[in-house]
Amino acid sequence: MRRQLSVVAAVGIAAATVSLPMTAADASPTRTTTVVRAATTTAPQWYLALGDSLAAGYQPGKGDDKTGGYVGGALQMLKLQNPNIGLTNYACSGEDTKTFTSGAICGGNDPAKSQQAKALAFLKAHANTRGVITIDLGANDIQRCVKGTNIDFACLQGGLTDVATKLPAILQTLHKAAPNSKIVVLNYYNPFLAAYLLGTQGQQIAKASEGLATTFNGEIATAAKTINAPVADIAKAFLSDADTPMVTTSFGKVPTNVARICTWTWMCSMQNIHANDAGYTLMWWTLAPHLKP
């Protein structure tokens, strides 16, 4: 485990130096989604979005867009079940499994103002109704451990431990507060695959990052299982394990997973881990089947 963590920390540094052009052709996923309109009696009455910057719809240079990103797409899918459904988005950019309950980032260090506290207050106010909760959380437990060329290996080890212990508790708390509502958990794509473009060493780092990403997403799946919540498999949608070579117009012949991380995130053009518009679209397409009643 410690060896895998060290490799992923190196990926974080290496990937930050990647800068390659993207084209619209590379960045446009093509897929169709069929959403079944639910009966009025089963339609959700509200949508609560929770999590980190991905749930906040963050885009580099623009900041958060809490009605956009994958949450905005999910809302449109839910409106096919209930045209009057409303969105409440408490997502906090930079949030991790600790700050979700402590309020250290978006709650002024006041647990009473934390994302979890806000969510529980919302659920209490809507106790006699049912809705949908989506949550992505855990990536910042790992990413925060790499700052420039400074790598905190103990932090990386602790990050996985935090996800393994704190995420289940968070999900169980939410489920207890809203036992009749649907909770959908999202896992993560692997932005550090972009290190492949750095040459031989980068290719080794990118390959090694796959193992840690699998472990990390496995912890998310385990947490979701404690409340029998479905997991929207973003990692699979981004073809994170697909090593088959493909030829791209922007960066030649590379493994499919590398091409996709470069075209569906800002990793290879702006050295930014966040999804671009095409990536967010793919995320809500992946989420959509789990939103059915």
TrEMBL record:
<dbReference type="Pfam" id="PF13472">
    <property type="entry name" value="Lipase_GDSL_2"/>
</dbReference>
<feature type="domain" description="SGNH hydrolase-type esterase">
    <location>
        <begin position="49"/>
        <end position="281"/>
    </location>
</feature>
<feature type="signal peptide">
    <location>
        <begin position="1"/>
        <end position="24"/>
    </location>
</feature>
<protein>
    <recommendedName>
        <fullName>SGNH hydrolase-type esterase domain-containing protein</fullName>
    </recommendedName>
</protein>
<dbReference type="InterPro" id="IPR036514">
    <property type="entry name" value="SGNH_hydro_sf"/>
</dbReference>
<dbReference type="InterPro" id="IPR013830">
    <property type="entry name" value="SGNH_hydro"/>
</dbReference>
<keyword id="KW-0732">Signal</keyword>
